[in-house]
Amino acid sequence: MEYKHFSHHHNLNLYQVHQGQTFHCSGCETSCTSDSIYACWQCNFFLHDHCGNANRFIKHPSHPSHPLILLPSPTYCSGTFLCNACGAAGKSFSYCCATCEVDLHLHCAFLPPKVNHKSHPHELRLVHTIPEKEAFCDHDCKVCNNVLQSKQWGYCCVKCDDFHVHTFCATNEVKPGLYLDDDDDAGLDSGPVEATQLGLFQSGCEDQLEVQLSEEAVVELFKIQLQMQMAEQLAEILASPNHSSPA
Fold first, then answer.
1. 12, 90, 109, 140: which has the fewest C-beta neighbours closer than 10 Å?
2. Which domain holds residue 14?
3. Global pTM value
C-alpha cells in the first residue's frame, strides 16, 4: 500500500519490520525496531507509523495561545531547533509556533500525561511549567541524578514535592506513540492512541473549534513559509561568490 506524506517527494510503502531489523526514523530521529513503518527505499527515508500519521497541526496544552504546525525541517538558518520540552537540539520534524518561537520534538509533543516508573511508588505527571516558587530552582533528576533545568518539562510526583524526573528518563520504558492529554491512565503498559484521535490533542472537541483552529493554523503556516523563504534566500546570498563579508 502506497502512502503520500507531505515531507517527502516520493510515495512511501507500508512495511512490517521483522525481528532484528533496525531503521532510522526521519521524523523523530529515533530507531524503528518493531511494528510497521512507512518506507522510501530509494532514499532510505523511513517513518514510524505514528510519525507518519501525526496531524499537521495541534492545539497543545503547553502553548494554548496558538496552534503548533508540524514542519519537516527547522526554519532557522542554523538548520536546527532547540526543543522547549527537553532542551535538546533537533534537525528533523518539529511542532512549531513561528510567532512565539516555540519548537517541540515530535515525540515530546505527544508525551503521555501520566506514567508509572519503577523507581517510584506513585504516579508521575507531566509538568509543562514550573510552579512560581520553584521557577528559578533546578532539580536533580531522581533517575539519572543529572540536573533537570527549571525551564524544561519534567515528570513530577504530586504526593512527593521533591521527586522530579527528566521526560526521557520517565518514559524510557514507555512505548513510543501519540498520547492524548486526558484523564485515562497512561502507565508503562499503555500503548499509543490512534492518530485519528489527535486532531486537537483532546478528544470530544466541537466542530466549531476545529474550524477556528484550522484558520489559525493557515495563518501560522503562512508565517512559517515566509520564514523558510527568507532563510533560503539568505543562504543563497551567503553562498554567492559575489558575497563578501564586511570589513
1. 140
2. 2-52
3. 0.70
